Prior knowledge:
Elements: H1 2-11, E1 13-18, E2 33-38, E3 49-55, E4 63-72, E5 77-81, E6 84-87, E7 90-91, E8 94-104, E9 107-117, E10 123-128, E11 141-142, E12 147-151, H2 161-164, E13 167-168, E14 172-182, E15 185-190
Antiparallel strand pairs: 1-2, 2-14, 3-4, 3-14, 4-12, 5-6, 5-11, 6-7, 8-9, 9-10, 12-13, 14-15
Amino acid sequence: MLSSIFAMMLVAFPKSYTIPSVSMEPTFEAGDIFLVTVGGAYTPKRGDVVIFKVANKYSPDYMKDYVKRVIGLPGDHIQMIDSCLYLNGKIVPRVKVQDYVETVHGTAHHVDQFRETLPGGKSYLTLDRDRYGPLDNTGLYVVPAGYYFMIGDNRDNSKDSRDDGYVPAADIVGPATTTIMSGGHFVWRPVD
């Protein structure tokens, strides 16, 4: 028993990543540093925030790291209708909460913020910058076996599975677990 625990500790380890964009606001802000559990046996769960690899279309040998939320598991049906997420034919409940306030060039901007709750109870915040944006009404996606469907929490400002397609299980690095730096300050908080 002890040797198997020790072997798991050697295989799975934390690695830090820096968020380069605003696609996961409000969960992460650009520049945040967070930990990801790398290695070991990991099966993504709906609602997890994960790091995954994406090949550059101009240079397929170059893999870039992305961070998004797992929304669809193999076999799931996903669709966006009027800014609302539908999972397997049912709307995913969301409740309007206090606006997300960001400062751009010294001016405060208010963005609609919602608490979304997936089946199973996983709850997190999302942003809706434009109720009629190009990704707010999509066709139906059916997630194939061995793949996952990822969406950024900043729904109108995220390059994700809605336009880049499904993510193979083999390209998932691991789950984000803890934010350690935000806004240039040390923090220690679990990732929602």
